[in-house]
């Protein structure tokens, strides 16, 4: 085989192609006395486990919240839901901060407590090991190996001994060699179980490569295509365009979906969460004797629930800020509600702002994005919606431009059909009420700041340019995009 090793070049065996491997690397593997399973442990992202010490105190569902969603997922795993019984993969999707990771963590803990065979991978864009898919398969395989009978581990170790560089292979090859084939071998040995083996993959959208995100979905379906292994996979992510398109191409019967929307009473759950957490502050805070029993007022709770927009990240950010043992809770809640001004350098929403900034930085044309969002935030009355076609016409955009621009912002803003407009016209929906506060505060949004004066001046100039033609078209034409739009929408 030595003819294959001349520096860093590609070489091939019957089992496939390796990339950029040196002679020294191969010799070190060849002469190693380390067993196959020991080699596997060198390629594990321990921080990706649901019970990893690196993820100490991970987000999970507050007691008596998300009950319906958790029941639907656990019933799917156990095969108790007739409409999802045939599905082997479930996609839990929702906007940024909707609580997907908390749900995934809670499900993993429930399954662990019930002694299910469980493997998990919690992606995190800020972690070098969890921000890519390089260690995904090996991490899942390791967790299965320590929980399944010895046959699985032996088959896994043999795979490494036969192919010491399996970790350099494609995702498809790794899933086949390190997950599927050992599971098939295990079943052939006589292994059986009343429960499915479960894999939980959380935060798929935080994997650094959008193409790899889609491949993980494709490979997951390929892994279960033959339905000959007792495995189910739960994937949680934001509704990014590449992820959504990949799921949309999959057979309906093999996929179950859960969208974190108002169908699951998220507002009630958030109110319950806030009430419990404020009660904890009133009983445990060092200054609890200075907090009146009626704090916070029902109006304050209503405001916080409304600004949460069904997303738990806002509520949890507020609680962390108000509960600080080094500050007065009443004063801090007044800062959150805008009654008091924060001190210089004090940002109650630092975590939330970092999330907004990360998502907005993924947009190519930020100036155009701000023009569109500004139109919705500053011009459309709170009780009304404006069809996308009107906004595109007003900003002289081509039909479809807004949908293209928003395709990676689905966790913050989305283009949706509105049932109260003719032909289910598409409208822009902002999923976070607090996004407006962020964009209108220069100390928080910085280069994403929506300057009211500049934006109003810009829109006024556009209004003047459209005014003459609009008045004529409203009386003479029924086909122009502006027809039927009230004048106050355009002239403010």
Automatic annotation (TrEMBL):
The keyword Repeat applies. The keyword rRNA processing does not apply. InterPro entries: NPHP3-like_N (IPR056884), P-loop_NTPase (IPR027417). Residues 83-238 form the Nephrocystin 3-like N-terminal domain. Keywords: Repeat. PANTHER family: AMELOGENIN (PTHR10039), NACHT DOMAIN-CONTAINING PROTEIN (PTHR10039:SF14). This is Nephrocystin 3-like N-terminal domain-containing protein.
